[in-house]
Predict the 3D structure of the following.
Amino acid sequence: DGGITQSPKYLFRKEGQNVTLSCEQNLNHDAMYWYRQDPGQGLRLIYYSQIVNDFQKGDIAEGYSVSREKKESFPLTVTSAQKNPTAFYLCASRGGTFMNTEAFFGQGTRLTVV
Amino acid sequence: EDQVTQSPEALRLQEGESSSLNCSYTVSGLRGLFWYRQDPGKGPEFLFTLYSAGEEKEKERLKATLTKKESFLHITAPKPEDSATYLCAPIGSSGSARQLTFGSGTQLTVLP
């Protein structure tokens, strides 16, 4: 089945540690996105990538880093510089001509700082 | 800068009580708009794409409409299983088309 897989579903991080969230898609989509969602809030864009080896900052990129070495994969690293990382993280991908194609989402990773 | 506002933030309805959710926006060169549904702890699920003012789309008890400045999601005779957060994302013609910016959502609760 085609889709987007995020792992792990739950992740716990100690203060001062970096953690990496995985996002893999087999939809052959060029564009991929990372969003953060806090309780009762909407989606805030962290980073997006339109093509391999290229990515752009979204609205809240500070304390996060990404890479796009393969079309299928867009991992997100939450660094120790992110002071309040506890949140629900969503990855999405989008194909075709970006202007009017919908995004498909993974099931999310819930990150908790302990 | 593109702006997206959804209202109300939360809505509680009795089963069978119809209502509408609003998504208003300021985007340069609107090319369309997406509506999504999100259940707690899950990723958003695509509902509709609307491409031009005046367009309407329906799915079961949901009907989405689009004008140049806002979109409505009408819910007719809702059931408890319609309870979810509904998100909209307008598509502009500039960089926002690639960024895909969402509104903050309307949390809908339908009581039996």
